[in-house]
Write a structure and sequence with these properties.
Helices cover 26% and strands 15% of the residues. It is globular, with a radius of gyration of 28 Å. By secondary structure, it is α+β, with helices and mostly antiparallel strands. The N and C termini lie far apart (80 Å). A hairpin with a 2-residue loop joins strand 9 and strand 10. Bound molecules: CIS-heme D hydroxychlorin gamma-spirolactone. GO terms for molecular function: catalase activity. Its EC number is 1.11.1.6. Keywords: Heme, Hydrogen peroxide, Iron, Metal-binding, Oxidoreductase, Peroxidase.
Length: 697
């Protein structure tokens, strides 16, 4: 028998059986996924008929021999994989991260440090609690997970749109999720925290108070994935070329600002457009309105105690206010392409906090340490085995030569005789890499202490930070927090749980506890609100800053007699701002003819207020009091949306009772469009908030 050929070490470590290198993750089509124009079996055999089974006679029994029938149905039977235990509902997109070079002094990771370096990414946004088919706009934390395909290996930054987490230690995660997921008896409610066991858990684990405040704030119901911040939550350790270390916390800041839905909008969307966020993201990318975020870091000295000005940097229920330590921008993320196939990309993408690259290390945060075990472990079940990093969306863009072999769904055809290191049989490769060769060499750090099941005393402060958060909100945001608690606790059956939550709130803010108690018809408990740091303006979403309108939606109420030239002019003006105009009329079809002709995109039957960021009424729009049109206008009024009307359109607004701040009228489009655009840049007409009844929002 001839000796086995020596492996060619210059060849890619893994090639498919067809010889196609496994580098297709950035979009090259893998011929095994889909190739040629002819229908085939999974085996590649051309199929003449996929609608009729092979039978013994036209009316006779079906034959087991029909391999196409068997394979077609059997594959279908196995099409579903387990959904994620949490974050099951999500939407993803491809993009690019570009470093600006300013992190060069603190990390050796080129993805963050090398000025102008472009790294491909795949980002997945998600809700936490709902099942895969649940509605996007449930009140919940949003996941913001980014896979950086760096040349040094894959780095996963698996964050949320809130900078703090429910719990301080990973060991509590199963309890938290058991309490937050639907009840084990009736399996309700779906995608909701408004139930007994959730509030039971968070009131018994008061470390959850800070996160609950964020969840009950407007952050729990984002307007769009494109308008959310993202946070790495934990402190990470960055290491530079000189092996000096700092601690950092990562933050994504959206270029479009941080904006939310109202609770009424969120609830309506759950019924009328459960895919609201998924659609918004895909539509914006398809329209070329590529969402962007700046990646920033707060940098802290890597001291022995890992505290900053009394704030424990290892406690994931705490933040360091940006006014104390500013966020420094180190790069930009741009999402530029929708997935080609939802399952292959968004469903099969698998993140792992344990995936880091040289220059990025962990801290002792007990939440992070537990996560580093959990993510790898969960993929073994969810994706069926240890080879999940070989799936196209998960494949590293760095060469892989890992001595790992076999396992379910092995897709590579590894070469060589010696899958162990060191070896002499395969020419001594693969061989370990030291620091100079880019090896992941951990910078030594001192650890000492007794083996205990305890946490540091600083972990016991559960109220000062939620108190700071609440104090930092504007009045309208505080009102929303009160309403959210009142709604959620109103759905709780056990009086004792409601009272316990009120007792917790009394340690945060007296008026918050009193207002929620009043809404529930319960006595306000006495408490002692915690001392806290000064309010942090960075925590409020109502800033007065004007943001771009990319991907914003505007309805123009029209009809057969509407001023079509005016609508065309409005569309042009909004296009220039990146916003999209949708014509809304009593019936479908086309309005007018010639160059000003307008296609009706929504009718009074198919449209709902939640779809639009502003509503305009055209001159000549019907003022027949259609109840659906009136409801849309009145909802938009309560939702604090800007309005405009020209010509007779203002009469339609009057008839629906729409007036006051943020309602712009004139005789032509030119008269109103500047004010409309300016008001939309503020997201909502906040001055109207006090004029609409609290019960409506
Ligand atoms: Fe987690 C998924 C974010 C704590 C265990 N988590 C998951 C996803 C995000 C987060 C965004 C979805 C990833 C995707 O889109 O596929 N998780 C967080 C954040 C945490 C956190 C920001 C705290 C700072 N997670 C956490 C703990 C544990 C887990 C403490 C377990 C001890 N998380 C999981 C998981 C998931 C997951 C069960 C489900 C699907 C998956 O991992 O891939 O392993």
């Amino acid at each position: 028998m001839p000796p086995a050929p020596k492996p060619d070490q210059s060849a890619p470590a893994q090639v498919s059986p067809t010889g196609v290198p496994f580098e297709a993750a950035d979009g090259d089509r893998d011929p095994r996924a889909q190739g040629g124009d002819v229908l085939t079996s999974p085996n590649g055999v051309r199929i003449p008929d996929t609608d009729h089974a092979l039978k013994a006679g036209r009316r006779g029994p079906t034959l087991l021999e029909d391999f196409h029938l068997r394979e077609k149905i059997s594959h279908f039977d196995h099409e579903r994989i387990p959904e994620r235990a949490v974050h099951a509902r999500g939407a993803g997109a491809h993009g690019v991260f570009t470093a600006n070079g300013s992190a060069a002094s603190i990390t050796r990771a080129p993805v963050l440090a090398e000025k102008g370096l472009e790294t491909p990414v795949f980002v997945r946004f998600s809700t936490v609690l709902g099942s895969r088919g649940s509605a996007d706009t449930a009140r919940d934390t949003r996941g913001f997970a980014t896979k950086f395909y760096t040349k040094e290996g894959t780095w996963d930054l698996v964050g949320n749109n809130m900078p703090v987490f429910f719990i301080q230690e990973a060991i509590k995660f199963p309890d938290l999720i058991h309490a937050a997921k639907p009840s084990p008896t009736r399996e309700i409610p779906q995608a909701q925290s408004a139930h007994d066991s959730f509030w039971d858990f968070v009131s018994l684990h008061t470390e959850a108070t800070h996160h609950s405040l964020w969840n009950m704030s407007d952050r729990g119901i984002p307007r769009s994935y494109r308008m959310m911040e993202g946070f790495g939550v934990h402190s990470f350790r960055l290491v530079n070329e000189a092996r000096e270390t700092v601690l950092v916390q990562f933050k994504w800041t959206p270029k479009l600002g941080v904006h939310s839905l109202t609770w009424e909008e969120a609830q309506l969307a759950m019924g009328t457009d459960p895919d609201f966020h998924r659609r918004d993201l895909a539509d914006a990318i398809e329209a070329g309105a590529f969402p962007e975020w700046e990646l920033g870091v707060q940098v802290f000295p890597d001291t022995d105690d890992q505290m900053y000005e009394g704030i424990d940097l290892l406690d994931s229920t705490k933040i360091v206010p940006e006014e104390m330590v500013p966020v420094q921008t180190i790069g930009t993320l741009r999402l530029t392409a929708n997935p080609t196939n939802y399952f292959a990309e968004t469903e099969q993408v698998a993140y792992n906090t344990g995936h880091v690259v040289p220059g990025i290390e962990f801290t002792n945060d007990p939440l992070l340490q537990g996560r580093n075990f959990s993510y790898q472990d969960t993929q073994l079940t969810r994706l069926g085995g240890p080879n999940w990093t070989q799936l196209p969306i998960n494949r590293p863009h760095a060469p892989v030569n890992d001595d790992q072999r076999d396992g379910f769904m092995q897709q590579g055809v590894p070469t060589g005789e010696a899958p162990y290191t060191p070896n002499s049989v395969d020419g001594g490769v693969p061989k370990p890499a030291d620091w100079a060769e880019g090896g992941y060499v951990v910078v030594p750090r001192k650890v000492e202490g007794e083996v205990v099941r305890e946490v540091a005393a600083s972990f016991e402060d559960h109220f000062s930070q939620p108190a700071m958060f609440y104090a930092s909100l504007s009045d309208v945001e505080k009102t929303h927090v009160v309403e959210a608690y009142t709604f959620e606790l109103g759905k709780v059956y056990e009086q004792a749980i409601k009272e316990r939550v009120l007792g917790v709130l009394a340690n945060v803010d007296t008026s918050l506890a009193e207002l929620v108690a009043e809404g529930l018809g319960l006595a306000a408990p006495s408490g002692s609100p915690a001392d806290h740091l000064p309010p942090s303006p960075a925590l409020s979403q109502v800033t007065g800053e004007a943001f771009p309108l990319d991907g914003r939606q505007v309805a123009v109420v029209a009809g057969p007699d509407a001023d079509l030239a005016g609508i065309a002019a409005l569309r042009e003006a909004l296009d220039a701002e990146g916003a999209q105009l949708k014509v809304l009329a009593p019936r479908g079809g086309v309005l007018g003819s010639g160059k000003d002709q307008q296609v009706v995109e929504r009718t009074n039957v198919t449209a709902r207020s939640i779809e639009f960021d502003a509503v305009v009424v055209a001159d000549g729009a019907p003022d027949d009091g259609d109840i659906k049109a009136t409801i849309l206008l009145q909802e938009a009024l309560r939702q604090l949306k800007p309005f405009a009307a020209w010509g007779s359109g203002s009469g339609v607004l009057d008839a629906a009772g729409v007036s006051g701040p943020g309602v712009f009228t004139g005789s032509s489009v030119d008269d109103v469009v500047t004010d409309l655009v300016a008001a939309m840049g503020q997201h909502r007409v906040w001055e109207r908030a006090e004029l609409v009844t609290a019960s409506a929002v």
